[in-house]
Amino acid sequence: MIVRSSFLEAPFNLGDRDIDELLVTSFLDALPGPTRAGHGLANELLERLHTRFNLVRPCG
Could you write out the three-class secondary structure of the chain? Predict the structure, then answer.
C-alpha cells in the first residue's frame, strides 16, 4: 500500500509556524523508528515533509 502525504504537504506549505509545529510534533515525531514496522512510511513523505523529517529525526 502506498500512502501519499499531499494532504499534509499542502498545509505545511502555507508557512504557518503553528501548523508546521503541529505537523512536526504530532505526525513526524510519531512515525515509527527504523527498527519498527511501518518505518517505510517516512519514504512516502513528499519533499518538504521528508526534508523536515530528516532534520528532526536524523537517525530515522
Answer: CCCCCHHHHHHHCCCCHHHHHHHHHHCHHHCCCCCCCCHHHHHHCCHHHHHHHHHHCCCC
